[in-house]
Design goal:
Elements (H helix, E strand, L loop, with lengths): L2 E5 L3 H13 L3 E5 L5 H11 L3 E5 L1 E2 L2 E2 H9 L8 E6 L4 H7 L3 E4 L4 H13 L1
């Protein structure tokens, strides 16, 4: 069963995404992203998800900075990363090492397709 980590500071959104992905048979790890960046990296190193869904704006943090940290961590740099935002940050995310970008609001089936595509490759 593929393991997906959701890094999203909006509790409602995180819950909905987690429920949606669990209904699709995926194992879900959730993080509000509000801890220190090292804590997020530590959770990822411990859990080793197959894919990560991460919001570009996490509280007062920049998800792109966390993405760069992930890509510079040898144990994590091959994990598939799907970035998301209500604004088009696709170029910035892809240049920083994201595997995919999805614009909010998105349809649930579009998210599922993106996640399944990432976990299948």
């Amino acid at each position: 069963m593929p393991k997906v980590m959701i890094i999203e500071d909006d509790n409602s959104m995180r819950f909905l995404l987690g429920t949606l992905l669990q209904m699709e048979g995926l194992q879900v790890i959730e993080d509000d992203g509000c801890g220190e960046n090292d804590a997020i990296i530590g959770i990822m190193e411990h859990e080793l998800p197959d894919a990560v869904y991460m919001d570009v704006h996490i509280g007062n943090k920049n998800g792109v900075d966390i993405l760069k940290l992930i890509r510079n961590t040898p144990a994590l740099n091959s994990i598939k990363i799907l970035m998301s935002s209500g604004m088009d940050h696709s170029n910035e995310c892809m240049q920083a090492g994201a595997n995919s970008f999805i614009m909010k609001p998105f349809m649930p089936e579009d998210l599922i397709a993106e996640i399944k595509n990432l976990t299948a490759s």
